[in-house]
Every structure is written in structure tokens, then in C-alpha cells.
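User: Design a sequence. Structure:
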């Protein structure tokens, strides 16, 4: 059995799921959308330039979820995936995944994003195995 490993952001979906979730937290009223996204974008640029420790980004992006239960987060992530992520799943990616599935390959999604997002997106695509940042 072969192993097919897919990155999530800009490979399976057209976008970055962590940034898209940050936008959602603004829509939910958990953060001030303008200032939070400004800081998010600065941190993501630093990450892209290899100048940011992932722990720093995760501390920033998870802060609005402090005090919320995993069940509350999961309840909100599911419709977000349906409304905002499903429309940006690359069709070529789904075709490639289907080909691997038909070949009997093991399929894994990896991401430097939180597993609370990665797992929900992978579930929507029909992939059971994920590797993301455990919270």
C-alpha cells in the first residue's frame, strides 16, 4: 500500500485555513476583525519568511478560544467548513484523492494549522488521517 501525503493550505484548498478561521472569529464577534486580521497577516508574513515560531502564532490565534469548550468550537467549525472551505476545495485535488483511494492508497493530510481545523476539513474531503498541531 502506498502512502499519499497532502498538504492542506494552497494544495487541497485555495487559501490558508488558519487565516480563514481568524476571519470567522471576527464574524463571530470573538475579536475585533480589523485589528485581529492586521496582526494575523503580519504574523503569517513573518511565518512565510521563516521569521516566526509557530508557537507564537498559535498563542495569538488560539487566545480568542480560551474559555470555550472543545464541543463549542467543533459545533462552530463544522458549518464554517461547509460555508467557507468547501467552496474553495480544489477540484483537481479531489480527483487526485479519488485516484489514490481507488488505488487503495493510504491518504494523509498534513498541516501546520491546528488539528481542530485540519480534521474537520479532512473529514469533509473524506480523509480520515491527519497530522496537525495538537492543541
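Assistant: Done.
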Amino acid at each position: 500500500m502506498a502512502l499519499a501525503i497532502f498538504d492542506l493550505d494552497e494544495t487541497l484548498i485555495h487559501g490558508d485555513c488558519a487565516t480563514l478561521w481568524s476571519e470567522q472569529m471576527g464574524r463571530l464577534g470573538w475579536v475585533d476583525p480589523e485589528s485581529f486580521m492586521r496582526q494575523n497577516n503580519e504574523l503569517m508574513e513573518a511565518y512565510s519568511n521563516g521569521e516566526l515560531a509557530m508557537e507564537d502564532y498559535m498563542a495569538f490565534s488560539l487566545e480568542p478560544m480560551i474559555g470555550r469548550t472543545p464541543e463549542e468550537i467543533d459545533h462552530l467549525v463544522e458549518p464554517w467548513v461547509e460555508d467557507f472551505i468547501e467552496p474553495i476545495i480544489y477540484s483537481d485535488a479531489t480527483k487526485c484523492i479519488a485516484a489514490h483511494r481507488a488505488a487503495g492508497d493510504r491518504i494523509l493530510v498534513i498541516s501546520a494549522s491546528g488539528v481542530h481545523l485540519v480534521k474537520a476539513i479532512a473529514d469533509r474531503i473524506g480523509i480520515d488521517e491527519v497530522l496537525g498541531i495538537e492543541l
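The chain is about 55% helix and 15% strand. The chain has a mean pLDDT of 96.
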